[in-house]
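2024-03-11 09:14:02 DEBUG pipeline.ingest accepted 1 chain
2024-03-11 09:14:02 DEBUG pipeline.ingest length=579
2024-03-11 09:14:03 DEBUG pipeline.predict start
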Amino acid sequence: MRWLVVSCGLIGLTAIAITVGLMVGFSALPSPTSSAGQQLLRNYNNLSHGVVFASVGLGLMGLLVWALSQPADSAHQPSQEHKPLGTQAMRWCRHHPLLLIVFIAYGVVMVQHTSGFYPELQGWLRDIHNGQLINPFQLRDGLINETMRANSFRFFPLAHQDLHFLSWLTPYVKVWSLVSVLELVAIALLANRAVTTLSGGSESPGQLWLISLLLLFHPATGWAFFQLIYSERLLTLLFSLFICAVLEHQRTESRHSFALAFGCALVGLFVKDIAVILFVAPAIFTLMLAASGRDTGKRQSYSLEWWLCGLSVVTIAAYLVLSLLPSLYGGSHGFANSDRLTLIADWRLLALTLFSLTRWLLIVRDRCKANLLDALNLGALAYAAALFISVGYPYESFWTLPVQLVTVLDLALIWSRWAAPALHRKTTPAFVGAFGIALSAGVLALESGQAQTFSKRIGKIQVNQQKWRTTFEELEALLNERRRAGEPRNLIFMQTWFGRAEYERLPYERLIELDPVTRTYSVVDGIGRGRRYRPQPGDLLANIDKRKLTVLGDESSRYAEVYRFRPGMNYGAIYERQP
């Protein structure tokens, strides 16, 4: 454990040293708007993140060495033998053939509809494809600038870094999507394992179906996993692993369960600014139960919970060093969301709240025994409150994915501990399983009447990608047609999600960038590169993804629409300059 103490101490000492140093010499620093100030800020971000993550890496390696050093005959070492992973996977497939088909079909749809036409993904793909694909193991600025150099008072330095790692292995987004499918399936299986443990070690008929259907077909899941740009995917996977590790630690108090739980929490707090709540709140709840004598477990030590509480100090220190100080120096106004303090709740959030309050009341009155899920409910509700305060709580958003996971755990526990046993006393296990599947399907059918649904969210994502891809294809066809006819091929674009790199593969003669603010035209590639440009009749203007033509004011009347992906739909249009 000394390695863990050293790593956490390094983060704290770094925070103190840098804070004191900047407070002493803040006024002597160059202006953040100057080139020297920008270089200083960049060097600071590189150095501070390097020191912090070296400390985190040191801590993780120390955890691993410490866990592996546990004697095999330890009193807390699990006695059962584990079968090889391949054998377990084949056995699972034989026992769940229909659910396997559901997972495969879900994955096929995800991969099939994945393309590079995600909004925020454009700059990242540009950075990847512009590099040497035969030398992929290099840091990519596009996947670092938005997180580690944002300097906007936000804190999510490891967000998207799973994509950064994948970019070293393959540049193809469909492979990334396949990995995302595996992450989602892993979350569902880990959730099932957690519920089985909480239910006494036996899986109830229909339990995995209920978890899979209610988790996979929620709009928050669709929004997070059918697009590749959201950190909640990685955070929820780490949270699922954390839950299973804590459950095992409560039973065995083994070193490897401690290391896995604390390691997931240590990495997870750097994935999203409020992620620390998910890992610290359950630990606080467990310590409160122990202090009041209501913890029914035969624990010899609560060291894991105390260490998890210590992560709040690590988070504050890391936030101070990695985000607050550079943001103050850079003069950033910070991230603002107009929907903060807005609540759009669905029945699942209400069910989570009511179930949690009921359980807590019964625990206080000694009417029921507490378990880890009661602590996780506190973490989920605190996380939802943090979302409400910072960005608002729309139930369908990818932001709520960790909350949706805990809610599904609650519903599955109700099924496995109370509903399924009651049915099993009156009928067969096969009927109980079928009833669980039907119940889950019925819940999804009722949710289809909500304002925002899984199918609507997925449909919107797919239509956007189809719109952008089809418009590019039509633009390429128009330019090729003009090339065959010997006509001028001048292409005008406005910088949006799609920039110069996306247009450079098209067969134009001139690529012209239009500044919508100054309404000036500049040739950025082709004939007359670097010169100002006066639009000519017949020039094509692409409006793929973001800006409306009305930003040009009176200038917009000089362009006639020659293509639109769908009538009445914004963007996905091509215009031609008129005489």
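2024-03-11 09:14:41 DEBUG pipeline.report The mean pLDDT is 89.
2024-03-11 09:14:41 DEBUG pipeline.predict end
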